[in-house]
Amino acid sequence: MAAEQRQFIECVLLGTRDAEIDSKRNTSSCFTSKIGELPNCFPSLTLRYPSCSICNGILVHVVQVYCPLEGSPYHRTVNVFACPSRECFGKSESWTVLRSQCLETEATQAQEPKANQEATMATRDWCEGADDWGIDEETESSAPPANSSMETDFTSQLQGLSLREHLQSSVPAGEGLLLPGPVPTFQPYYISVVDEGEFCVDADMDHAQRLLKEYQRREGVDVQQLISCDGEGESEKYEKTKARHGDEIFLKFMKKISVCQEQVLRYSRKGQPLFITAPPSNVKQMVPCCRSCGSPRIFEFQIMPALVSMLKSINTDGLTVEFGTVLIYTCEKSCWSPSNQTPLEEFLFVQTDPDQKFFK
Questions:
Q1: Cα–Cα distance between 30 and 44 in angstroms, integer?
Q2: Burial, 328: exposed, middle or buried (Cβ in 10 Å; 0-12, 13-18, 19+)?
Q3: How far is CA 64 from the centre of its chain?
């Protein structure tokens, strides 16, 4: 069991901001992992744009993560929303996370744009060697050859037409994305992915080392010495090197992400979250079971603080969201019924950043 847990922890995918999504040339879809813009909705679902449970204000879409699971017949997307009101910053109740799924047979009805081949290739890279974050190869290869109509007789064509008509009639069409009116929107960017294990520790470390040195100078702490204080009987040693704000977890957080300071997402389904400050002692009890099937929820991914400075409004002055990290927990079974007509709400936990300026 311990060996399996270590394996899950080591399988970490990092998401970074990629090219800007230009609506004049490219169109995002349910199969796109992205920052900002409006969420995309599977054709069989109705997605009612959420509002803040604290102030009842309109939320802003922060990220969309396309993350189908290996061996599952479903496409799968997770959308995360946040309240841009400063009074709601740092409060988990002002955020919403929705999980949407769609059978691959249903997804064939959606007319996905073909011009965005470059973005499609970037998205597919998410899933190599881990949970599939990209477009399913089988879905792409399921299209018939261009000359198939010449090799099929008239009777077969009629049978195929009947089958397609039956498929379309058996899948209820959703209403798509329902907006309450004009909504604030962040500038959209594609999210690219890399396996954390592929990073060379010695590569591109100058920037990270400068940041760490600046932090050590400002806080009066030796990071290397602090990281080594993990065993029993080291409390006295730790006290001598403890930062002025007293948060050793933050220093370990910084050490961990130093290999890729620009990461905006950290994906490790069934792995362990990377806390930026000490979590509540009952954090495991805080995560409720799935409201749909009653199964436990597990950690899936987290939004990282580097994203804060990248969120730029395209239609609302002063639009911003502040956080340290946002931990996303989803149903362990990823339960879904083909009869579902709306996304399922999952659980998230927001931690504030003890030193936000460090990431800007």
A1: 12
A2: buried
A3: 6
Q: How far apart are CA 227 and CA 288, in angstroms?
A: 32
Maximal CA-CA distance, the chain: 84
The 10s digit of each residue's pLDDT in 47-105 is: 999 999 999 999 999 999 999 999 999 999 999 999 999 999 999 999 999 999 999 88
CA dihedral of 208, 212, 217, 223, whole degrees rounded to 10: -160
Produce one character per residue of 201-218: b if its CB has 16 or more CB atoms within 10 Å, e if not. eeeeeeebeeebeebbee
Count Cβ atoms within 10 A of the Cβ of residue 163 and give its class: 0-12 exposed, 13-18 middle, 19 or more buried: exposed
Q: What is the pLDDT of residues 198-234, one digit of tens each?
A: 875 544 556 666 777 777 777 666 666 655 555 444 4
Kindly report the pTM of this predicted structure: 0.73
DSSP labels, 25-86? T----TT--EESSPPP--TT-EEEPPB-TTT-PBPEEEEEEE-PPTT-SEEEEEEEEE---G
Length of the chain: 360
More confident residue, 119 or 253: 253
The Cα–Cα gap between 263 and 35 comes to 12
Residue for token pair 């639009």: 319
DSSP secondary structure, 247-312, as one string: -HHHHHHHHHHGGGTTEEEEE-TTS----SSPPPTTHHHHSPPPTTT-PPEEEEEEE-GGGGGG--
Alpha carbon 144 to its chain centroid, in Å, reads: 33
Report the candidate in 92, 64, 68 with the shortest Cα–Cα distance to residue 78: 64
Strands 46-48 and 176-178, by their bridges, are parallel
pLDDT tens digits, residue range 171-189?
A: 457 899 999 999 999 999 9
Report how far residue 14's alpha carbon sits from residue 8's, in angstroms, rounded to the nearest whole number: 14
Lookup: tokens for 345: 């709400």
Indicate the average pLDDT of the chain: 78
Phi and psi torsions of 17, nearest 5°: -70, 130
